[in-house]
Amino acid sequence: MSLTYHNGSLLPSTDVQLPLSDLGFMMGVTVSERLRTFSGRLFRLPEHMDRLRQSLAWIGLEPPESIEELIEAAENLASNNHALIDPADDLGMYILVTPGTVNQDPARPTVIIGTAPLDFSCWKETYREGKKLVTSQHRQIPASSWHPHLKCRSRMHYYLADQEAERREPGSRALLLDQQGHVGEASTANVVMYMEQHGLISPRREGILAGISLDVLEELAGSLSIPFSERDLSIADLASADEILLTSTSPCVWSVTGLDGSPIGGGQVGPCCTQVLSAWSSLVGVDIVGQAEQFAVR
What we know:
- The structure is a single chain.
- By secondary structure, this protein is α+β, with helices and mostly antiparallel strands.
- Helices cover about 30% and strands about 25% of the residues.
- Strand 13 and strand 14 (about 250-260) form a beta hairpin.
- The longest helix is centred in the N-terminal third of the chain and has 16 residues, at about 65-80.
- The two termini are about 20 Å apart.
């Protein structure tokens, strides 16, 4: 039976209920983390939980569960739920924390940890064909509103940006600039450019989400002797790149093959992305592309 963690208890997933008065619904106040398993084991769990700890501190939330208790709950949940699927398949995991219900006394933050099999059907072609980006008129939330490293579910700007991208180029994903007009992030992914002479170049980390996968990408680049640096990037910089990569928790790394209607890297998945993805597969002991193709249809 698939289980979900809810406020200290592991429950059948179908039994978990949330009141509509929860501030996660009422005001969209939800701190979040997104993880995945490889061969049933949660990847970079301590790093994700450190980011969760920091996000909770920024908004002043103190669940009764300690981070150590949540780590144990996440591991137990992944173990139980992965046993219900093919051993070669894997899970995505979400962690959601809200302030709880309106006017609750005493206040009790809502903590939910759930899983679902990874939706490989949405990605398998992207590994082979890449993804197209469209620069959106919607911009990143300014740092004066909340810290760029805060991981939360308040993502109306991403939703609107992706709608705009879909209207302009069906099947594409939105690229958002920051308030100064520098490259920020794609919706749900960090963006990195590759130049043969300079290696991988990321937007400055202080202005973007502190991506766990971005850290992994930098580690893998080091192991492959690919230089990795950070600086302010413009759309013109991206347009002149040999390759553009997207990196995020579930798919790990994808190639961008088009930007604003123009091809990147000849419109093909580039050798740097292919090399990094192969190294990522070796790191986790799973053929990432092969797994996506195998379980695209369950």
